[in-house]
Amino acid sequence: MADIRHTNWVDGAHQPPTKELIHVINPATEASIATIDATPLETVSSIIESSLKNFSSGVWSQTDASTRFTVLSKAATLLRSRLPEFINLETQQTGRPIREMKAQLSRIPEWLEYFASLARTHEGRVTPFKGPVINTLTRLPLGVVVHITPWNHPLLIATKKIAAALAAGNTVIVKPSESAPLSVLKMGKLFQEAGLPDGTLQIVSGYGRETGKFLCESRLIAKIDLTGGLATYEAIAPNASKNLIPITAELGGKAPVCFFPSMPVEKGVKAALFASFIASGQTCVTGSRLLIHSDIYDEFVELLVSRTKTLRVGDPTDDKTQIGAVISRASVDRCSAFVERAIVDGGKLLCGGEPTTVDAKGFFFQPTLIETKADSDLACNEVFGPVIALIKCSSEEDIIQVANATSFALGASVWTDDFNQAHRVAEKIDAGLVWINGHHLNDPSSPWGGFKESGMGKENGIEAFESYTKVKSTIINYGQEPTWFDDEVENARYG
Ligand code: NAD
């Protein structure tokens, strides 16, 4: 792929390139595949002002539900017709296997369709107000909302947020990750073709600590929706709090995957591979802690290790590749450091543990399994790579206790053929998402978000749509006239 300049999408057009640029690196080849703007702060400032004008004009914020439905539905159709080019870009910029990107991107139009339908069907309420009064509650858009998105599922995560925010009538500024911004930068033109008024979706690239920080500190914005790390949340939260604006925060995780003896070991091992190694372990719900009941532990681990050793690490553009690259050299180094510390902690390396390359290039790390203690560094902290902790647990209670023993609470899965046990355990696990005999399952209608240090608020579902609105209460008196300070009424009452 040639080194192409991708510029900001603002007010309905790609803008001339700014002076400062950032190289986007294909992690599988280490080649620069594109350059983007490190947008100067004066430019960001004028983009915010222009976005506010767009919102105040009502060109989108005051459109009716049927128009929003039509535009978002059309965007879904256009995206579906252009999937191959987006899949290719996504594979190049993330280094993830093309078979994963085909599966993931083929579902993204559903988010646009779901929120289109919600825009069209979501209704207000009438409260049981006392007396001859009608009290209506209507939902209004918030204003200019800022989306700060990560590199691991660039298009999926940005589209989830954009669809919900636009459905509710907001004006959106997206700042995609500087590591993988290309697919998101292409969405502006697509939405324009779908009929979205210019200036309603602005896509601005740059570094998080500069462009992202500046956007989040603006007093003109009405909400921040962040997917990223806890440190990023901590950097933006104080100002948001001062400016009285809400944050949706989708942060990190350390998902426990709980295996019980009633589940056939073969099925459990397939589940573990799926939960742990999709995206080379770079998802917020990666099954990064396998909690295995002692009754099946030895058999389970033997089979899992032999299957893990056969996973095909390779060129992400090859349909047969199962494990692609990790995002950067820094990510490879972080994986190595976790392995070293795990061994110092007394962990036992069962397979993998080393950086690797494909055709002598790229940022790859071997799929790695390490037997460790429940309170070790590896068992408690997010790696965001293919380095997985195995923990032997003595009982159902032990599995529940270990599952809840980190500061994260995003995803968790329970694998058992015992129906009662499945519900008992799921109920006691403290996490925003608990799958029973599944993992990574996601749907636009299903609220997604964590507890504890995994964040607050939800993507997806009615919850996400409503989080992009404010409630206005209109109170209609169709009965009595005002009686206070009315001499005639007061004389009658007290005379
Ligand atoms: P990151 O926090 O480094 O970056 C995320 C975004 O924040 C990027 O666009 C970045 O430029 C921006 N940013 C960084 N510093 C900023 C600042 N001071 N002000 C404003 N913006 C700033 O995260 P990442 O490395 O891109 O993604 C990995 C993290 O995201 C992991 O912790 C992962 O668990 C989490 N994640 C969570 C979910 C979820 O649904 N909960 C999904 C995917 C990823």
Automatic annotation (TrEMBL):
<dbReference type="GO" id="GO:0004029">
    <property type="term" value="F:aldehyde dehydrogenase (NAD+) activity"/>
</dbReference>
<comment type="pathway">
    <text>Aromatic compound metabolism; naphthalene degradation.</text>
</comment>
<feature type="active site">
    <location>
        <position position="250"/>
    </location>
</feature>
<keyword id="KW-0058">Aromatic hydrocarbons catabolism</keyword>
<dbReference type="InterPro" id="IPR016161">
    <property type="entry name" value="Ald_DH/histidinol_DH"/>
</dbReference>
<dbReference type="InterPro" id="IPR015590">
    <property type="entry name" value="Aldehyde_DH_dom"/>
</dbReference>
<dbReference type="Pfam" id="PF00171">
    <property type="entry name" value="Aldedh"/>
</dbReference>
<dbReference type="InterPro" id="IPR029510">
    <property type="entry name" value="Ald_DH_CS_GLU"/>
</dbReference>
<feature type="domain" description="Aldehyde dehydrogenase">
    <location>
        <begin position="19"/>
        <end position="473"/>
    </location>
</feature>
<dbReference type="InterPro" id="IPR016163">
    <property type="entry name" value="Ald_DH_C"/>
</dbReference>
<keyword id="KW-0560">Oxidoreductase</keyword>
<protein>
    <recommendedName>
        <fullName>aldehyde dehydrogenase (NAD(+))</fullName>
        <ecNumber>1.2.1.3</ecNumber>
    </recommendedName>
</protein>
<comment type="similarity">
    <text>Belongs to the aldehyde dehydrogenase family.</text>
</comment>
<dbReference type="InterPro" id="IPR016162">
    <property type="entry name" value="Ald_DH_N"/>
</dbReference>
